[in-house]
From TrEMBL, chain A:
One of its GO terms (molecular function) is structural constituent of ribosome. It comes from Polysphondylium violaceum. Transmembrane segments: none annotated. The keyword Ribonucleoprotein applies. This is 50S ribosomal protein L20. The lineage of its organism: Eukaryota, Amoebozoa, Evosea, Eumycetozoa, Dictyostelia.
UniProtKB/TrEMBL annotation, chain B:
This is 50S ribosomal protein L13. InterPro entries: Ribosomal_uL13, Ribosomal_uL13_bac-type, Ribosomal_uL13_sf. NCBIfam families: rplM_bact. One of its GO terms (molecular function) is mRNA binding. One of its GO terms (biological process) is negative regulation of translation. It comes from Polysphondylium violaceum. Belongs to the universal ribosomal protein uL13 family.
Length: 139, 223
């Protein structure tokens, strides 16, 4: 890399690593590695934070996080975790409506599955995916 | 919504005060609750990077009446080292209760907090007292009231009222012939529990054998 670019990136670094050529090159290369890693970690960390916030919101209404998500997913609610966490922080009443929806759906589901109770008592006959073998025409 | 906007608003980010009466509570289960409250994990504005801003204050009263399960009063040891050779000092929990009852709960809570610099500041927000007197009433009355504030009373044992289906599931495969006495019921229950433990032990041995962790030996059935 051009040395001018390196000094531009090394602004504000500690000690001699902002002034010396060889030290600045080392520090900048290592810093760019950290950049690369943290761009990936950012997605995981934010998702973890959203989940922690949703969990705190649902526990006010007597629900677990996992039960809450199970109820929402099986009722085909397509709100992602980012928006759910924002609802938990800013709009507690609309978040409460979602927990009510999840509780209703959970009462219809079978224990620890996404399958409704009725399907287990009266199972629909499973139809095998019939793949028709192509018949070759022989001359 | 970024966390900066939340903490600028004093209504959302005000520190709450929780008052807990520790009589007959078990140490570990109470400490998990307290550690969560100190970090603010019960709030939807919880942020891992700023535990001091979303954490709360906790006041614990009657720490002398706290309980440990099993034989821990005799067997559990609180260790410290003076720094000199041979300077290991051990005090069992029963002596620690007479010496410093606050230390038992404080030690349990500090072990459950994250191991970094915030631990020191979160510790200062935990106020434990031996007796029933609460010196923080004036401060608590000034803070805004919230439904999130936890005011726990003394411990109440949970009452279990199982339905007939749950009882049938528990005693599945057994024929029940007993009177409606407490003694009869406990005898049958303990017999079932022993049998289930035995089955679990056998399954564990088989699993280890399958993974070639055990040397090939003849497994004797304990019957």
């Amino acid at each position: 890399m051009n040395i001018d670019k390196i000094f531009k990136l090394a602004k504000g670094y500690f000690g001699r690593s902002k002034n010396c050529k060889s030290l600045a090159r080392e520090r900048v290369e290592k810093g760019l590695e950290y950049n690369y890693v943290s761009r990936r970690l950012k997605k995981r960390d934010f998702r973890a934070q959203w989940i922690q916030r949703i969990n705190a919101g649902t526990r006010q209404h007597g629900l677990n996080y996992s039960d809450f998500m199970r109820g929402l997913i099986s009722s085909d609610c397509q709100i992602n975790r980012k928006i759910l966490s924002e609802l938990a922080v800013t709009e507690p009443f609309s978040f409460k409506a979602l927990t009510v929806q999840a509780k209703d759906q959970l009462s219809k589901l079978h224990f620890k599955t996404y399958i409704p109770k009725e399907d287990i008592i009266n199972p629909t006959p499973q139809v095998k995916a019939g793949i028709e073998t192509p018949t070759l025409k022989q001359k | 919504m970024s966390t900066k906007h939340i903490y600028q608003n004093p209504i959302t980010s005000a520190h709450l005060w929780h008052v807990i009466d520790a009589t007959n509570h078990h140490v570990g289960s109470l400490a998990t609750k307290i550690a969560g409250l100190l970090r603010g994990k019960h709030k939807p504005i919880y942020d891992r990077s700023s535990p001091l801003e979303c954490g709360d204050y906790v006041v614990v009263l009657n720490s002398r009446n706290i309980q440990l399960t099993g034989k821990k009063w005799d067997q559990k040891l609180y260790r410290r080292h003076t720094g000199y050779p041979g300077g290991l000092r051990e005090t069992p929990a029963s002596q620690m209760l007479e010496k410093d009852p606050n230390h038992i709960l404080r030690h349990a809570v500090l072990g459950m907090l994250p191991k970094n610099d915030s631990k020191y500041y979160l510790e200062q927000r935990l106020k434990i007292y031996e007796n029933e007197k609460n010196p923080h009433i004036g401060q608590i009355s000034k803070t805004p009231q919230s439904s999130l504030a936890l005011n726990l009373g003394p411990y109440e044992a949970p009452t279990i009222n199982p339905t007939n289906e749950q009882v049938d599931n528990y005693f599945a495969g057994y024929i029940l012939k007993m009177d409606d006495n407490v003694e009869q019921f406990s005898m049958v229950e303990s017999k079932v529990r022993d049998h289930k433990d035995n089955l679990k032990r056998q399954r564990r041995v088989l699993r280890k054998k399958r993974a070639n962790e055990l040397k090939p030996i003849n497994i004797e059935e304990d019957n």
